[in-house]
Structures are given as structure tokens and as C-alpha cells.
Amino acid sequence: MFTDEFSTDYGGPTREFFTEIFGLVVGKLVHGDSRNFTFIHDLVRLGNNEYLYFGFITALALVHGCPGPRYFCKSVVDFIFLGDAEPTIEEVADSEMKEKLKELRECNDRELFENQMKVFFERFDSGFVAATVSYEEKDNLLKMMARHHVISCAHEEIPQYITGIRIGHVLSALKCHESKFLKEFIYDEKLITADCIKRIFKVKYSSILEESRLEKDVYYNFLTMFETLEDAPCEVEIQEFE
């Protein structure tokens, strides 16, 4: 994993190690789109304490000054830090369910909405078990559906992860410096990190030994600069070009 890495590089291999681990759990313990992840409900992995180990690893990474997962949706992080959250439809990981909820949200016709409710059986799985749903109950329905898919469906997995972060009172320390550490959990597309920069380049060194040493020094200093800037990240404006 760390071929051609310096053995002493202010935590470079350590940072990459944790970043790789956080990437490995995607699709296994967390899921979603655009790195706006929520926890997966998986009783087998829960029984194997995998969410607990995920929490341990997160705590260990932060204690060593490395980045956290940086891919959770805001509501999951609010639940971890505050014990409660108000999930949005945009945070629902299931793309099909997300589209259905968006369609319901955009429906402004009373009769059409109530007809849609007659075949919207997914609401029963989310705990909204009323025989009928009126148009006036639409906002409450959508709120409950979003909460179910983001928080409630993983009501055992999230606490197990939180228990892992609590090791050594790490979570308590994080809460004392909440504004500083929130960025280690929440995905921010405007945040430029050392890991982002590192993944852009594929380095090919010279075959001449002396030149290769100089090139490695340059690359080492280049990465170290961005790692030093980690505590003062830059923000960029994302633009789309045709």
C-alpha cells in the first residue's frame, strides 16, 4: 500500500492507512450517493460488532491526527453528536425511495396525493400505519419517512458505532470541540484535503538514481505542504462546464 513512501513523513502512511479503511466499509457498513452516507441495516455485521470496530477505528484515526470518514450526511452526524436529528429526503440512501418521496413532496393536488397513498405501501414499513393518509398529513409523512430511512432503520447500528467512538472518552473530547471535528465526519464537496490532492497524481520517478532522489524529495515536500494545510482547509467554488 505504501510503496516508495518515506518512513517518517509526518503521518502520511498513517493517514492513508485510515483513509483506505474508511473506503473499505463503503457498501458494507455505510451507503448512499455523492458521499452523503448513512448506515446500512445489517444484523449479521451488527452481530459481529463490525460497527463497533468501525467506531474504534474512527476514534483511533482522530487521536492520531488523521482525517475521519468525511462522508456521513449531516443528520447522521447530528445524531452522533447531539443525539437527535431532522433528516431530509435528500439524505435518503435508497435512490428509488428518494425519488418516490420527492414526487410526493412535489404533488400539490389533493386527490392525486390521496390516490398515490393507496399504493404507497412502503409507508407501513416505516411505521406510518394509518389506514388512510390525508393531504394535510403529507409533511408529517415525508418527515417520518426520511427519519426512518436515515436514522431509525439503523437504530442499533448507529449506537454501536457511537459506542466505538466513546473508547478512551474520545467522543466526549470531540463534543467539546464540535466545530473543529464536525468536518471529520461530514462530506463537504468544497473541502480540499491532502488526500484529495494525492489521489490526483500518479507519480513516475526517473530511472536515474540521483534524479529520482530529488524527485522524491519534491513530491514529499509537496504532500507535506498539503498535510500541513489540513487544519486550515481551503474552500473552492464548484463550477460545471459544458
Structure commentary:
The protein is mainly α and 242 residues long. The chain folds into two domains: 1-190, no CATH class; 194-231, no CATH class. The protein has 13 helices and four strands. The strands form two sheets. It has a two-stranded antiparallel ribbon. Strand 1 (30-31) and strand 2 (38-39) form a beta hairpin.
Structure summary:
This protein is 52% helix and 3% strand. By secondary structure, it is mostly helical.
Main β-sheet description: 2 strands, antiparallel
Instruction: Specify the overall morphology.
Output: elongated
Oligomer: single chain
**Main sheet: which strands, in order across?**
1-2
Low-confidence stretches: none
Class inferred from helices and paired strands:
mainly alpha
Helix content: 40-55%
The residue-averaged pLDDT reads 85
Number of β-strand runs: 4
Number of domains: 2
Question: Roughly how many Å is the radius of gyration?
Answer: 22 Å
Q: Beta-sheet strand percentage?
A: under 5%
The arrangement of helices and strands along the chain is HEEHHHHHHHHHHEHHE
End-to-end separation in angstroms reads 37 Å
Protein name: G2 M phase-specific E3 ubiquitin- ligase-like
InterPro entries: Hect_E3_ubiquitin_ligase
GO molecular function, one term: ubiquitin-protein transferase activity
